[in-house]
Backbone:
DNA sequence: TTTGACTAAATTATATACAAGCCCCGGTAT
DNA sequence: ATACCGGGGCTTGTATATAATTTAGTCAAA
């Protein structure tokens, strides 16, 4: 039984929703598996009511799907869907970048460059965890720079849905350095206030991120398949 | 007490969510007003439970917001936010149009053109209701043509949020005809498979839609303000 | 052996009961 | 007169009980 919020502002439903969301994003709850209301309620030491409300929230965010009298399952996503999601993400980020290139404040531009320098250092050290953290803030700043809450919201929604697959990415030093090079193009475009260059740089960056994820995922699935066959023999 | 679904597939929560959504979109429930769980439950002749679930769904779609122990209120949207929403919508539609220009099938292109011709006729007659209906399908087809479910989802989410303001638009024959002219540019671009032209045409179309909505809204608010002042005197 | 209907168990959906937090309103003191 | 501070009422949040629906499993008949 997990701890409930000491006496936080949030209701239990929201707390549970956050916990479940994190579990889905981290891959702790595999895609396609069903949420059992009773057992989740037991885990958190609450009744089924707040659990149900939490599941509604997850569905709203597209992380799970609900079918009447059948339950809520973690959204299953095919390779083709991942491809689509990256394409959409690329377009959204490209749009944000284009707008950011001439809307960001001086201090935002400076922050972007400073994060980039920091990521360069982390890439050199091969610190994937640190890199990922700054990377998230880097991209988030690009969204914010667009000065459009609806674009930001759309981008973040999609980013959330892609989160479970991010684990396949940015895990080796080689990829980190390539990512840095791509970021260099983005930073340059923003500093130059060049919308077209920013748009292009972000599209390219997302293309290579997509490739990375899809290849790694494919490789892992192949291994699983091979292992399964071996088991049967 | 309203009728519940005869014996439909949907659960009561979903049914209620749809009804409330429609009410919000039509403006029957003004922005900023609070949903009273008890009275809504009474109206539909159900308990509070499905009403609460419906409200969660509304919140998920961004039509309402929840604050713990205070209730759920219809999302309040300022003129500036409307402006942002139209900007985001313009970028999303432009992106969809760009992709559609070279991804649509022949029959989709034909359908687009045929809808356009039909709208031309309706504009001539001044049939606003008919025009609006086809117009929705016209834009929806443009989304679908992008072949990207995430872009489609993002576009439709935003479209839903903009829906309450659509009532300020496409109400006089003049605007209908201008809209038609803009559609002509879009259709031409799609038929020519010209991504850049499609993108531009859609941005322009959305700019003028935004202007229409914002102007009409401003005018109406001014009238309300004037009336209020007169009341006080 | 397979198909089909039917029953029972499990799970979700809804209703109802209870607890907790917010808000207004009046009282009191400065 | 005004600012501060409980208390009561109302609304939301949570728990539990009941109804509706699906699914799995059994047994009979083709």
Residues:
């Amino acid at each position: 039984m997990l701890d409930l919020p000491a006496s936080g502002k949030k209701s239990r439903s929201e707390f549970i929703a956050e916990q479940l969301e994190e579990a889905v994003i981290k891959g702790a709850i595999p895609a396609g598996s069903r949420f059992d209301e009773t057992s989740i309620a037991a885990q958190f030491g609450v009744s089924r009511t707040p659990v149900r409300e939490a599941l509604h929230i997850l569905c709203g965010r597209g992380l799970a799907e609900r079918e009447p009298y059948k339950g809520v399952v973690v959204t299953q996503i095919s390779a083709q869907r991942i491809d689509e999601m990256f394409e959409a993400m690329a377009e959204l980020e490209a749009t944000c970048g284009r707008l950011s290139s001439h809307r960001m404040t001086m201090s935002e531009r400076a922050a972007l460059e400073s994060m980039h320098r920091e990521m360069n250092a982390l890439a050199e050290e091969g610190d994937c965890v640190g890199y990922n953290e700054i990377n998230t803030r880097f991209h988030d700043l690009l969204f914010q720079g667009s000065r459009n809450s609806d674009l930001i919201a759309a981008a973040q929604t999609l980013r959330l849905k892609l989160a479970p697959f991010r684990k396949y990415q940015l895990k080796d030093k080689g990829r980190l350095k390539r990512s840095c090079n791509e970021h260099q193009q983005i930073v340059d475009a923003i500093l130059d206030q060049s919308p077209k260059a920013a748009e292009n740089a972000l599209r390219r960056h997302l293309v290579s991120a997509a490739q990375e994820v899809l290849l790694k995922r494919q490789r892992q699935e192949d291994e699983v398949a091979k292992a399964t066959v071996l088991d049967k023999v």
The two ends of chain B are 41 Å apart (CA to CA). Residues 12-74 of chain B form a domain with the Arc Repressor Mutant, subunit A fold (CATH 1.10.10.10). The interface with chain A takes residues 9-11, 14, 52-53, 56-57, 59-62, 68, 81, 84-85, 87-89, 91-92, 95, 148-151, 153-154, 157-158, 161 of chain B (CB under 8 Å).
